Structures are given as structure tokens and as C-alpha cells.
Amino acid sequence: MRKRKWIQVICAILYNCNLIGFAKGEIYKGDLKGLCVPGLNCYSCPGAIVSCPLGSLQTSLISSKYKFPYYILGMLLLLGVILGRVVCGFLCPFGFFQELLYKIPTPKLKKNLWTRRLSYLKYIILVVFVVGIPLVLATPGFCKYICPAGTLEGGVILTAMDMRLRGLIGGLFSWKVMVLIVVLATAVFVFRCFCRFICPLGAFYALFHKVAMLKMEVNQDKCNNCNTCVSFCKMDIKKVGDAECIHCGECVGSCSRCAITFKNILEKNKE
């Protein structure tokens, strides 16, 4: 789907259109930072004009003993109900970057039983690092210890541009750079490895796969249960539209019976 690629490119540019920040090596702190984008995009990226939903959620949970995070939770719930994992397939710059890395011509690891089992890891990371650590230890666990997008967009760029920050580099930053290198290297051989196995934002949106308004749908009257779509998909789906489906639409052309379509729930209710 060529349109999807253009949407991914446009989102990446819009999320990070603060060109002055790239020129000066400074983080934008204007009013727009009070808003969150749907996909993963680091607050600390010099070009970022809005905030990351995961970072905002962790910050809100840390301060939740003083003020309940109605705004960020409400926004995430709204995005989950309307878009679900469509966000992963269309609106996430880091997912798009992994797809570009996967295009590098190398032997590829095909999905299998173990990759499907590993896909559950992101739900554990969501509970432990995004919710548990902020609430118990009052620190943004995922952003601090794991997030490769933040390391790439924020840490690496800022330290490269600001000599003063280089003197502050310690063991934690080295650990995160190692995580980033492993994720990027793996993405060359494994399709969207971060999205499939690690990303807690994708895990959160996956919780809404049954109720999301926008989704891929199979017409059961046309489907002959050949499972060609499942075999064709590079994600660890068991069927089109399940929790692991990012609704990218790439499977549509694989169906000889034209049974797969992109629908929203409002259209479905009109039929």
C-alpha cells in the first residue's frame, strides 16, 4: 500500500518538524508539548513538537498520588477505541524506520512458534516498566531503561550535538545504546522486531483489537479459510484483525477471493 508509506513519512515529518531544534540541539518546550502524538516519538528529540504518549503516561503515573492522570489516560483510551493498532501500521515513525531497515537485502528470519511466544513479552513490559516501575519506584521505567526510540531520537542526537552532555555519559546511557544497537541490528533480519516483541504502546493498543472502530475485516461469506493471508503477513497474527495485526492492509492483495477489506465500525453498522 503506497498510500500507507506516504502517511508514515508525513507523520514522521510532522511529529519532528522543529527544524530550529535540530539546528541548535535544543528541545522544544512550547505549548504543543502538552499534546501527545498517537505513535512512539521521543519528547527529547530536538525536532519533536509534541510529546510521546508512553512518556506522558509514565510521568502522569509518577505524579498520580497528587493528581489522577485523566487527560493522558483518556487520550490513550480514545485512540485505542478509534484506531487501535492502526496507529502501529500507519502513524508510528519508529515502526516505519524498522520497515526501512528490513528492506536491506539479507537472509530474513521467518515467523514461527517462538516469535509468536515472544510477542507476549511486550505485555509484560507494559505492566512492569510502563505501569509498575513508575508507580512503585517513581521513575519512568520504560523510557529510562529500554526505549530505543528515545535513545536514537533524543540521547544520541543530543549528545552528538552538545559536547557538555558527552561528559555526563555513564553506564545507563551505554546500556541504552547497546539496546538500541541490538534492536536496530535485529530489525534488519526480523520484521518490526521492536513492535512485535518489546513495544508496550503496541501492547496497549492491542487490547482494543475487538472494539476499535478502524480495522481490517474478513468477509466470512467470501473466505474459504485457506490461511494465505496469515502466511503472507509478517506479523505474528493467528487471523486478520487480531491483537497482533497492525492493520497495514498488505494482506489484501494476497486474498484470491477479495475477502479482506479495511472498514470502520460506523460503516458496518450502516449495512
Written overview of the protein:
- The chain is mainly alpha-helical.
- The radius of gyration is 19 Å and the shape is globular.
- It has 16 helices and two strands.
- The chain starts with a helix and ends with a helix.
Helix content: 40-55%
Distance between the termini: 26 Å
How many beta-strand elements?
2
Strand order of the largest sheet: 1-2
Query: What would you call the shape?
Result: globular
H/I helix tally: 16
| Radius of gyration using CA atoms only | 19 Å
Strand-residue proportion? under 5%
Which segments are poorly predicted (pLDDT under 50) over 5 or more consecutive residues?
Answer: none
Largest sheet: number of strands, sense, barrel closure: 2 strands, antiparallel
Itemize the secondary structure elements and their pairings.
Blueprint: H1 2-15, H2 19-24, H3 53-62, H4 70-82, H5 86-90, H6 93-102, H7 113-118, H8 121-137, H9 141-145, H10 148-161, H11 163-166, H12 171-189, H13 193-197, H14 200-206, E1 214-218, H15 228-232, E2 260-264, H16 265-270
Antiparallel strand pairs: 1-2
Helix pairs in contact: 3-8, 6-12, 8-14, 10-12
What is the compact description of this entry?
The chain is 54% helix and 4% strand. With 271 residues, it is mainly alpha-helical.
Keywords:
mainly alpha; two-stranded antiparallel sheet; 16 helices; 54% helix; globular
